[in-house]
UniProtKB/TrEMBL annotation:
It comes from Drosophila busckii (Fruit fly). The lineage of its organism: Eukaryota, Metazoa, Ecdysozoa, Arthropoda, Hexapoda. Coiled coil: none annotated. This is Sugar phosphate phosphatase. Its cofactor is Mn(2+); Ni(2+). GO terms for biological process: DNA damage response; intracellular phosphate ion homeostasis; methylation. It catalyses: beta-D-fructose 1-phosphate + H2O = D-fructose + phosphate; L-glutamyl-[protein] + S-adenosyl-L-methionine = [protein]-L-glutamate 5-O-methyl ester + S-adenosyl-L-homocysteine; beta-D-fructose 6-phosphate = dihydroxyacetone + D-glyceraldehyde 3-phosphate. InterPro entries: ARMT-1-like_metal-bd_sf, ARMT1, ARMT1-like_metal-bd. Subfamily III proteins have a conserved RTxK motif about 40-50 residues from the C-terminus; the threonine may be replaced by serine or cysteine.
């Protein structure tokens, strides 16, 4: 049984950056993990409480006054979780209606005793645990067990992106099947968070100047910060499959909103040009990391696009709906693996069905920072270490990772690049201003695979 009330003194944490060749951890006060656990996560929990308070009249109207008891209990639970985090207490097991509680409890019980509290655990374990605990309060309520407290934020992001969506919808019509178009779409997809901000700065009167994809790629203006661009290898991977009866691309999604819109445009391009016969999108089973895509977000997004006042955006929405009806663009079966604490190299041990699904696919595209952290195990590798080595044996199919850099986990950089960036931009690893498109194929060999790690908590 895990104890839940062991407090720790702030002075016991180390005033240092996370050392190389170790797991990211809030134990190191100069790490982004520490900042997140000390400041960002409490802020997110406060935001959830404020969302519930502001929506109380609406929820009472929908469910009746009985929902007020649920709200009271949930808010108290969130406040208690905030206190537990601030005191660095130990993780507690799940005992409610959580469908994945057996897997979580097994994982928590296997953690080494010194790594069972928020600031001493691997950051990925602690952060995932916090988001999982948060949703468990709703799962164990009487009336709000399906409530998505991040839904409004995700929807608002897309609603505010009208200029950018219209521009992209126009620019991506009639693209040819060539590497240049494919590469630009990939880069726009990678930079979508920054891109939406820059593109939306232009007025509707100037929109006509930004409907060409070449100009739009320039508007993004961020390619000088693309540290690794292996989109040529991704293109070659898809071209090698030409003529195959079935070419499946697994798409492991990240954020909803405008970023997901660009995911859909890239998927549309793959399907339209026969680079894939099916794109299978993997989304989260529960509200996750504020903005991650869930099944209901996919449905809402396509419906929103279809009903959009801009004809070109509406046309894109209807085309995507047809592709979904034809089972060319599909949602993968829901799994809690994506909202678990494990690195991806343990997929073969803890979710063999998912692993087998991937082995039949031509390519898996992993989007976003958290997916990258899980691919690399939240481990501080040498920045020049090869991508395939850092995957630690996880290569069920050809793999592409597209990610803007938001934490200290990175690999595959040319020798000396990380040191140079640290000198010219000390915050480069957490700013989100730099990105990578990395690739490795499933047939590539590496001596590291002769003795892959087997402990899921290592």
């Amino acid at each position: 049984m895990l104890r839940s009330s062991i407090s720790s003194n702030e002075s016991e944490l180390l005033d240092a950056a996370t050392p190389r060749h170790s797991l990211l951890s809030g134990r190191f006060k100069q790490s982004f993990a520490y900042v997140t656990l000390r400041s960002r996560m409490p802020g997110i929990m406060l935001q959830v409480i404020q969302t519930l308070q502001s929506k109380q009249p609406e929820l009472v109207q929908e469910y009746g006054e009985e929902v007020e008891k649920d709200l009271r209990v949930i808010i108290e639970s969130v406040e208690r979780l905030k206190r537990e985090l601030s005191r660095d207490t130990q993780f507690t097991l799940f005992h409610g209606n959580e469908p994945d509680k057996l897997e979580w409890n097994a994982f928590l019980s296997e953690l080494p005793h010194p790594k069972r509290s928020y600031f001493r655990a691997c950051w990925m374990h602690a952060e995932c645990y916090l988001y999982r605990r948060l949703y468990s309060f709703f799962e164990n309520s009487r009336l709000l067990h399906n409530f998505d407290y991040f839904a409004d934020l995700k929807q608002e992001d897309l609603k505010l992106s009208g200029v950018a969506m219209q521009s992209l919808a126009v620019a991506t019509r009639g693209l040819g099947k060539n590497f240049e178009s494919f590469s630009k779409l990939m880069r726009i997809n990678l930079w979508s968070n920054h891109y939406e901000i820059q593109l939306s700065a232009f007025s509707h009167e100037k929109l006509s100047n930004y409907v060409d994809i070449d100009l739009m790629a320039q508007v993004a203006g961020l390619d000088k910060h693309l540290l690794i661009n292996e989109s040529t290898l991704v293109w070659n991977c898809l071209m090698k499959a030409k003529g195959q009866k079935q070419i499946v691309v697994e798409y492991i999604c990240d954020n909803a909103g405008f970023e997901f819109f660009t995911d859909l445009l890239l998927s549309e391009y793959l399907l339209e040009h026969g680079l894939a016969t099916q794109v299978r999108m993997h989304v989260k089973a529960i509200p996750w990391y504020i903005s991650d895509v869930m099944e209901r977000d996919v449905e809402w997004t396509v419906s929103f696009l279809m009903q959009h006042k801009q004809p070109m955006v509406s046309m894109v929405g209807h085309k995507l709906a047809r592709m979904m009806a034809e089972q060319r663009l599909v949602l993968a079966p829901t799994t809690h693996f994506w909202t678990g604490p494990q690195p991806y190299f343990v997929m073969v041990d803890c979710n063999i069905e998912l692993y087998r699904m991937f082995t039949g696919s031509q390519l898996a595209i992993f989007k976003g920072d958290l997916n990258y952290r899980k691919l690399l195990g939240d481990y501080i590798w040498d920045s020049a270490e090869e991508f395939i080595t850092c995957l630690r044996g996880f290569r069920p199919c050809n793999i592409c990772a597209m990610r803007t850099v938001k934490c200290e986990v990175i690999c595959g950089l040319p020798e000396g690049v990380a040191d140079h960036l640290l000198r010219v931009d000390p915050q480069w690893m957490i700013s989100g201003n730099y990105g990578v498109i990395q690739y490795t194929d499933s047939l590539k060999c590496n001596c590291y695979l002769s003795s892959p790690p087997s402990k899921r908590n290592s």
